[in-house]
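Q: How would the structure tokens look for this protein?
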Amino acid sequence: MAARGRMPMMQPQVIVLKEGTDTSQGVPQLLSNISACLAVCDTIRTTLGPRGMDKLIVDGQRRVTISNDGATIMKLLEVVQPAARTLVDIARAQDAEVGDGTTSVVLLAGELLKEVREFVEEGVSTQVIVKGFRRAAEMSIARIRELAVSVDRADGAEYRSLLEKCAATSMNSKLIGSQKEFFTQMVVDAVLRLDQEELDENMIGIKKIAGGAMQDSLLVDGVAFKKSFSYAGFEQQPKSLDAPRIVCLNVELELKAEKDNAEVRVDRVSEYQAVVDAEWKIIFDKLDQIVAAGATVVLSRLPIGDLATQYFADRGIFCAGRVTKDDIDRVCEATGCRVQSTTSGLAAAHLGTCERFEERQIGGQRFNLFRGCPQAKTCTIVLRGGAEQFIDEVERSLHDSIMVVRRAVKNQSVVAGGGAIEMELSRYLRDAARQIEGKQQLIVTAVAKALEVIPRQLCENAGFDTTDFITQLRARHAQDPDRFRWHGVDIEAEAVADLFAKFVWEPALVKINAISSAVEAACLILSVDETVSNQQSQDMMAGGQPMPGRGR
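A: Here is the predicted structure in token form.
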């Protein structure tokens, strides 16, 4: 009995995961995730800065995109490695939150992982690394807020100058960098025309017209949209009106053909005529109500047929149907009208107005323009250019600049760009790390070294001697932090210079958001020690059914 009691118990094998499931765990999995992230970073590394290169990406539908915008490239890369997709997410978040710094945030996250890779290989707990990362991020963000320079909004000229410099800095690395003086004025004017409390970027419409030069682009103080499909009679409509009365409808003003399956039984021809007359009376009643309300410009989301078009033309009224929802919403916002879903009870109070309406030719297209809107909290940028891909990249560049100026309006604090703030933070963290005991000192020092990736990559992309520039920057920031705090890489002069004095300014929020997002992404990747990939079973029966005993 005693011998029998000492026999080991047979434990049944417990299968938790479906057959065919792939699992990877431990340090090798961590290192694999880090390697995948570094591969993604290497793809967009060369796009950083004024001398960054563009990427030509062809998607599954053979559409060609040429861009150096980090968020656009990351979105088009279709990254499938689960951990590396985190970098795609932070690039999108940076683009949505502040508009600029998308390449920087990906590079910074990758460099953080690269610097601590050695610690992971040596067996340092990832929780120690994560704690050090977060500590360094808090110190960096506090230092940025301490260094940031605020501009008083009361001084109008100085305030506008701040916005223009922030817009110009964001354009330096874009395709429109050569025309930044022209587009800087346009972007700042566009943002200042918005409601300064809401600053809704959707109220800035961007229309693209192929042909012409970039300098032919224009900013419309109001709303502009491409002429919609027109029926016979539109040639007789007025093409310009002063102080028009505008009505926006969600009503169909068109005679519809009878349904194929409709059946109307009549005994006499007069009864059939009564049905036809009723249809005509319904549409004429709608048209009469619009005219009685005093409208001189009629816009509708739904079609306006040839009958209504000719009716309005005879009375000197302009009409346009099938106008998109975005354009209708911006017309309402600018002119003070509201979209009406019926013409019953339509009155002058429901109409909007502006100083002038006109239809004019821009390039090869006709555009409807509403200028001098009394409640103008909206505007439209009409872009011109050569190839379609070129105009698309100009639009992305302007979007980034608009987002940066929006953030500068909300937070009037700026720091110097060109790697200056990163070098100052690197020096600050190195000095602070000397006061920290234990392994945390190594992690904070690793973060300090990782921050140097921005000025280093700027130098590499510009073809400068990276070692020489980084050595000069380290020496100056360490020699006199107060005097040289804004020294960074001056691409134009090919030297180390005070970039704040050269007006290379960026909103402090761009840097704060980039550091916090990069650190959070790095911490997330380091906290994953196992990947479970549930592959669909390949052992399918001929009829497409799974093998017996296996779950779906």
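The CA atoms of residues 417 and 504 lie 6 Å apart.

The radius of gyration is 31 Å.

Upvote if useful.
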